[in-house]
């Protein structure tokens, strides 16, 4: 369920990245456009004003002209200086006196020069690859004045390309600066996002790592107020869950305990009947009663084990010798096995220690043995092997001479237990399903196969070398 | 042999009483802690059967009280609780054995017999097991009335196994019985002693539980 949710949900990291990218890109485009537009406006304004001013000055000079030969050259030099100052190089000046070109800085036939209007535009021919190209936006713009009394006309042509390319340069510059600033901002933003998201991810990992029976408060180790609020809310929830679960389990445990006494009474009374004095039929009925109390007591015992294994506190661990526990349990089952003329054998090193909860380990081993004793053939033969040296972690293996099953049948049977839950009528299957339940919660490994030595079932339980039980 | 039963459930108390009487025991059944204490103080019982699930006074407190009074009668606890912790608690309160409800009557009788043997051994009285009679005081063993010679070590080993009949004694437990805490054990001496016992008493008496220890079946 949680996996499905995490697949569907959108990551904060992604949202922040996407939003930041969009906002930064939009800001950058708008800044570039505004700069371009404003630049154009101011550039044009400034240039036009100055050019008109210039044309008037030339006119003034021409009108009050000193007719000597050197005056034109002086004016040219002067004007060139002026134009250099305002930064416009691509321009031309034409001075027409008495309907004749007196001065021109552009290489055009004089008929065309004489036909130039005072206001307007003139195409800017560009020769490239043997053809004349007319390029839009970069024609000449003409500014002219005329003094009919003196028959003087002054026309200044200004190359629009200068303006166009000037603005283009500014815009590109803004664009480039925006790009660099944007990239740096994005890098910084990534860091900030990581700083925000990392504690979230660490917190999620910390919560995920918890075992199911861990009911202690979570410590997320973060100083962010939003997260400590989540931490508090989680801990509040855990505390309430813990209380509910405890209540339920203690109810189950108490109910099971309470059931044992009346069951013992039924059993004791049935067994106290003098079997010699009753008919065969009644004897059969009494045996039926005894079998029923057996089943009920096994079921109660397994319910209790389940309740206890579920409420086993993860922090309640100690160093436990598997060999000791196995010896103790084997001793308990030995009388029953000897009665069937069978035998049980323990193959184990001197000791096999691991960190764990005594109750859980006891329940695990007890159920493995109980299952083997129950299903072993007649006479019962059982071998218990403990391997403490394996790198994969200590393991305990229980083999019997019962009907047994293959590895795949075992897996299928385990899956069936899971589905059927606790419905098993005689409580027979419950033993292994309790083991399975603990195995899943404690992340251990449970394998079933056919015993080569005894022919029955061989169940191997492997403990995790890195984690306690 | 006299058995004292402390059980507040009439159905259980009645059934145990009848069954033990059928087995030839004299039975006193009390339902209150005060009655139990006075009975245990003034009379000599072979075994006390104590139900822990009693309301009011906690069975374990009563047991501790009995022990404090100096009563060393073997006590068999009947209880509905079977967790490792409960077991340890019971044995810590110096109960001698522990039986979880519901129990089989035969099992109860076997445990009572085992406790009776333990008490006899403690009191240096004759311990009986099947056709064996063991006299701790004189280190004498009789099988079908015939005296069989035993060295003290072999005798101790046999006595330990008989007194604990029905329970597996581990190698370390048996080594301890043989040598105390001195630690002067040799790896295969136990096997040698066991095979000597088998030669004297028959191969079937002592069963080997490989990897765990030895056991004499709980017997009749």
Distance separating the two termini of chain B = 15 Å
Task: Provide mean pLDDT of chain A, rounded.
Answer: 81
What percent of the residues of chain A sit in helical stretches (DSSP H or I)? 55-70%
Q: What oligomeric state best describes the polypeptide chains here?
A: heterodimer
Order of helices and strands of chain B: EHEHEHEHEHEEEEHEHHEE
Strand content of chain B: 15-25%
The total of helices of chain B stands at: 8
Estimate what percentage of residues of chain A fall within beta strands: 15-25%
Q: Main beta sheet of chain B: strand number and arrangement?
A: 5 strands, parallel
Total count of helical runs of at least 4 residues of chain A: 11
Biggest chain contact: A-B, 37 and 36 residues
Q: What ranges of chain A have pLDDT less than 50 throughout 5 or more consecutive residues?
A: 419-428
Helical residues, percent of chain B: 40-55%
CA radius of gyration of chain A is 49 Å
Which stretches of chain B are low in confidence, meaning pLDDT under 50 for 5 or more residues running? none
Summarize the structure.
The complex is a heterodimer of chains A (469) and B (220). Chain A is of the alpha+beta class and 469 residues long.
Structural commentary:
- The complex is a heterodimer of chains A (469) and B (220).
- In chain A, 58% of the residues lie in helices and 17% in strands.
- Chain A is built from 11 helices and 14 strands.
- Chain A has helices spanning 2-8, 12-63, 71-86, 110-114, 160-208, 225-272, 280-311, 322-339, 358-375, 407-420, 430-442, and strands at 91-97, 100-104, 119-122, 125-128, 131-134, 140-147, 152-159, 318-321, 343-347, 353-356, 381-387, 395-400, 445-450, 457-462.
- Chain A is rod-shaped and about 160 Å long.
- Residues 419-428 of chain A have low confidence and may be disordered.
- Chain B has 220 residues and is an alpha/beta fold.
- A 5-stranded parallel β-sheet of chain B has the order 2-1-3-4-5, sandwiched between helices. Chain B has a 4-stranded antiparallel β-sheet with strand order 6-7-8-9.
- The mean pLDDT of chain B is 86.
- At the A-B interface, helix 6, helix 7, helix 8, strand 9 and helix 9 of A face helix 1 of B.
């Amino acid at each position: 369920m949680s996996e499905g949710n995490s697949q569907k949900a959108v990551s904060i990291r992604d949202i922040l990245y996407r939003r930041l990218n969009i906002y930064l890109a939009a800001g950058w485009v708008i800044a570039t456009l505004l700069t371009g537009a404003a630049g154009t406006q101011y550039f044009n304004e400034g240039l036009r004003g100055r050019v008109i001013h210039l044309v008037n000055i030339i006119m003034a000079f021409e009108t009050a002209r000193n007719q000597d030969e050197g005056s034109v050259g002086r004016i040219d030099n002067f004007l060139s200086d002026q134009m250099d100052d305002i930064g416009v190089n691509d321009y031309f000046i034409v001075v027409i006196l008495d309907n004749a070109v007196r001065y021109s800085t552009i290489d055009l036939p004089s008929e065309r020069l004489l036909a130039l209007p005072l206001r307007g535009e003139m195409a800017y021919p560009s020769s490239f690859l043997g053809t004349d190209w007319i390029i839009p936006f970069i024609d000449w713009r003409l500014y002219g004045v005329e003094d009919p009394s003196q028959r003087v006309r002054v026309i200044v042509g200004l190359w629009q390309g200068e303006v166009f390319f000037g603005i283009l340069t500014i815009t590109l510059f803004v664009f480039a600066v925006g790009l660099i600033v944007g990239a740096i901002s994005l890098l910084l933003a990534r860091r900030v996002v990581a700083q925000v998201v990392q504690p979230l991810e660490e917190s999620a990992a910390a919560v995920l790592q918890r075992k199911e029976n861990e009911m202690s408060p979570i410590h997320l180790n973060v100083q962010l107020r939003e997260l400590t609020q989540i931490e508090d809310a989680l801990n509040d929830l855990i505390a309430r869950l813990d209380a509910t679960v405890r209540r339920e389990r203690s109810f189950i445990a108490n109910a099971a305990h309470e059931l044992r006494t009346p069951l013992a009474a039924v059993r004791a009374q049935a067994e106290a009947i003098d079997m010699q004095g009753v008919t065969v039929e009644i004897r059969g009925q009494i045996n039926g009663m005894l079998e029923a109390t057996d089943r009920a007591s096994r079921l109660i015992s397994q319910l209790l084990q389940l309740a206890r294994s579920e409420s086993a506190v993860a922090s309640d661990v100690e160093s436990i010798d598997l060999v000791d526990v196995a010896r103790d349990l084997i001793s308990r089952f030995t009388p029953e096995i000897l009665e069937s003329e069978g035998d049980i054998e323990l193959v184990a090193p001197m000791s096999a220690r691991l960190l764990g909860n005594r109750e859980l380990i006891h329940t695990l081993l007890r159920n493995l043995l109980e299952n083997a004793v129950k299903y072993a053939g007649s006479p019962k033969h059982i071998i218990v092997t403990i391997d403490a040296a394996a790198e994969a972690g200590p393991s305990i293996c229980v083999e019997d001479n019962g009907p047994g099953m293959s590895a795949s049948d075992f897996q299928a049977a385990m899956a069936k237990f899971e589905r059927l839950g606790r419905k098993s009528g005689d409580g027979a299957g419950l033993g292994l399903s309790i083991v399975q339940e603990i195995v899943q919660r404690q992340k251990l490994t449970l394998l079933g196969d056919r015993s080569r030595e005894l022919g029955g079932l061989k169940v191997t339980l492997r403990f995790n070398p890195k984690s306690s039980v | 042999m006299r058995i004292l039963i402390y059980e507040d459930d009439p159905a259980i108390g009645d059934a145990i009483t009848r069954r033990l009487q059928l087995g030839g025991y004299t039975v006193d059944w009390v339902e209150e802690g005060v009655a139990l204490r006075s009975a245990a103080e003034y009379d000599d019982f072979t075994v006390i059967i104590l139900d822990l699930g009693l309301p009011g006074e906690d069975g374990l407190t009563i047991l501790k009280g009995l022990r404090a009074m100096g009563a060393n009668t073997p006590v068999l606890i009947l209880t509905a609780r079977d967790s490792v912790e409960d077991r340890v608690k019971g044995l810590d309160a110096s109960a001698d054995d522990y039986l979880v409800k519901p129990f089989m009557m035969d099992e109860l009788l076997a445990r009572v017999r085992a406790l009776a043997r333990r008490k006899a051994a403690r009191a240096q009285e004759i311990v009986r097991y099947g056709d064996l009679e063991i006299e701790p005081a004189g280190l004498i063993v009789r099988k079908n009335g015939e005296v069989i010679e035993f060295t003290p070590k072999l005798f101790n080993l046999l006595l330990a196994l008989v007194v604990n009949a029905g329970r597996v004694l581990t190698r370390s437990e048996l080594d301890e019985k043989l040598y105390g805490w001195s630690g002067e054990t040799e790896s295969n001496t136990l096997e040698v002693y066991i095979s000597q016992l088998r030669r004297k008493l028959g191969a079937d008496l002592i069963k080997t539980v490989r990897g765990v220890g030895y056991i004499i079946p709980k017997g009749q």
